[in-house]
Design brief:
four-stranded antiparallel beta sheet; 119 residues
C-alpha cells in the first residue's frame, strides 16, 4: 500500500530546530519529487519546499529560505526537512506529498505532523 508518513514535529522555542521526516512506502522514492507543505488554522495551504527526483534540485518558499533545508535519502526511502531558526509564524501542520509528474502535481499526501513554536 502506497503511503507517506511524516514524523518529527513537536514543540520548540523560537530560534529552535526540528527535523521532519517523510517516509515513503509502497513505491520507490528515487523516481519521484517530494514536496513539503504546511497549513495553519484559518490559513491557506502553503508550499514550503520541494526536491526533484532527477537532479536533486530544490525549491524554497521565501518565508523559509535560508532557514529550512530539504534533503533525501533514497536508500531509506525518506525525505527530510531540517528547520532551523524557527519563528512564531512557522507553527502549522506540516505534510509531504509525492510529485508524480515532476512538474509540481501531487497525487499522494501524508497526514501531517504538527509543529508548534512557543516560549
Amino acid at each position: 500500500q502506497l503511503q507517506l508518513v511524516e514524523s518529527g514535529g513537536g514543540l520548540v522555542q523560537p530560534g529552535g530546530s526540528l527535523r521532519l521526516s517523510c517516509a515513503a512506502s509502497g513505491f520507490t522514492l528515487d523516481y519521484y519529487g517530494i514536496g513539503w507543505f504546511r497549513q495553519a488554522p484559518g490559513k491557506e495551504r502553503e508550499g514550503v519546499s520541494c526536491i526533484s527526483s532527477s537532479d536533486g534540485s530544490t525549491y524554497y518558499a521565501d518565508s523559509v529560505k535560508g532557514r529550512f533545508t530539504i534533503s533525501r535519502d533514497n536508500a531509506k526511502n525518506t525525505v527530510y526537512l531540517q528547520m532551523n531558526s524557527l519563528k512564531p509564524e512557522d507553527p502549522a501542520l506540516y505534510y509531504c506529498a509525492r510529485d508524480f509528474t515532476g512538474w509540481g502535481e501531487y497525487d499522494y499526501w501524508g497526514r501531517g505532523t504538527q509543529v508548534t513554536v512557543s516560549s
